[in-house]
Amino acid sequence: SVDVFAGKNEQKFIDFAGNKPESYKNSYYAILLMDGDRMGKWIGGEYAPQISEVIAEPLRTAIVSSDLPTRIKDYILKRKTVQPAYHRTVSRTLNIFSSLVQLVVEKHGGELVYSGGDDVLAFLPAVSVLECADEIRRMYSGTGDVELDSPAGKLQFKDEMLWIKGKPYSPMMGLKATMSAGIAVVNKKFPLSQALRIARESEHFAKDGLGRDSFVVSIVRRSGQITRNGAKWSTKDGSFNTIKSLQEMIKKMDSSGFGSRSLRKLYGDDLILSDDEYVDKYIPYVLKKAGSRKEDDGSFERMLKNYFRKMIDLEKGIEAITEENSDLFEARKRVVDLFLVQDFLLRGDGK
């Protein structure tokens, strides 16, 4: 029963916040759908390594320094290594990935329904679904230092590899490999068939609307209102992680005295401001009006400014944003909306 996942929200909230709320009621759960991006191109060999990347260095040097015409050298060295061994490696890596997804889902209080190749379907508490999805996509590529406990020992995913007990075991899909996720967050009484449909639509929008390597969260409130928001997982170099940054700031909000209601003031309505004016002047103004607590050392303001700078850049970089959503106000509005999404997942309607 989906009641099980909604029932785990309180404990997951305690794990997240580090304290037990006086009263807590969050009757929402999440359906997570994930899919590897551009798998047809992976299987077709478009992302296969070039011969120059896999042959021994002395051989590569010998070819480069040979008397062969440049076009022949380029043909040899830049040719893709699409051979049976390449397809076996991709297949083996996907099998390893799909066999370990359950560990991540259960770690976050969920239950895996299906994991085959690059496809994932799972049910989770609303509180932990974003963190779970982020770990799955980092595990897929073998980046971000994901750690898991398993019967075989401690597993680590880093440097594009799976490590077991501190020793390299298998390559993962690598930095070029990305995943997209669709998430439906619904009340436990909401029809399951409709929730699955909404999750699929969200996944399609993450791929087609946000240009892949993205996640989309669709929330169906008890009133029937449906909201949809999403973003890129991170910057291309991985130095900024959207989910981690969101969660760090949500934790900091309570100590800074900046409540979720004050978040909406960051919309800025129809103010015409440049990015720098918005971040350097308007955000401090909103924080001051909200009455930040004296014990706050200003770190929340710095975190918030950095978050908005990074997220606005990510928003403006999404190729598929429609023309009416491409102006600065809409980009900032979408960033604020994502903040509110994370806050809702943690607390539901019981604020």
UniProtKB/TrEMBL annotation:
Keywords: Antiviral defense, Nucleotide-binding. Residues 27-220 form the GGDEF domain. One of its GO terms (biological process) is defense response to virus. It comes from the Bacteria. It comes from Mesotoga prima. This is CRISPR-associated protein Cas10/Cmr2, subtype III-B. InterPro entries: Cas10-Cmr2_palm2 (IPR054767), CRISPR-assoc_prot_Cmr2 (IPR013407), GGDEF_dom (IPR000160), Rev_trsase/Diguanyl_cyclase (IPR043128). Pfam families: Cas10-Cmr2_palm2. PROSITE patterns: GGDEF. GO terms for molecular function: nucleotide binding.
